[in-house]
Amino acid sequence: MAKVLLVADAEWVINDVRAALSDPDYELVEITDPREAEDAWYDEEPDVVVIDLQVGSMGGFAVTRALRSAAHALEEPAPPTLILLDRSADSFLAGRSGADAWLLKPVPAFDLRRTIAELTAATAETSS
């Protein structure tokens, strides 16, 4: 089972991700306030963090950088992050923010599940 932390506040994004991951193979933890992302990552220990680009006052890129900084400060591996983008032009910035993957919204369920599987597999390989 993959534990996924979703950082999003747009109801349609939350509903899309819920629908895509409504399977016993996934445990979905949702937060709507991006300022809680670091604590949720630490408390929940998700396998993957999915972040909407347009979330709250921080935005997906800032949340990704904050998670990377927190992991570095704790001397732990950073969580694999997937940013849900609004336009393909944002992919450059997604990479610069340290995101491991990104997809354009609306995200087809198959693509979301495949990307999460790839990220969890890559993490499993590096930790063994």
Overview of the molecule:
This protein is an alpha/beta fold. It has a single domain, classed as Response regulator (Rossmann fold), CATH 3.40.50.2300. It is 45% helix and 20% strand. The two termini are 18 Å apart. The model has no long low-confidence stretch (mean pLDDT 94).
Number of strands: 5
Q: Distance between the terminal alpha carbons, to the nearest Å? A: 18 Å
- Residue share in β-strands: 15-25%
| Uncertain stretches of 5 or more adjacent residues | none
Radius of gyration: 13 Å
> Biggest sheet: strands, sense, closure?
5 strands, parallel
Assigned CATH superfamily: Response regulator
Task: Briefly summarize what is shown.
Helix content is 45%, strand content 20%.
Core attributes:
5 helices; Rossmann fold; alpha/beta
Any chance you could write out the topology, listing elements then pairs?
Elements lengths: L1 E6 L3 H10 L5 E6 L5 H8 L3 E5 L7 H14 L7 E5 L5 H7 L3 E4 L4 H19 L1
Parallel strand pairs: 1-2, 1-3, 3-4, 4-5
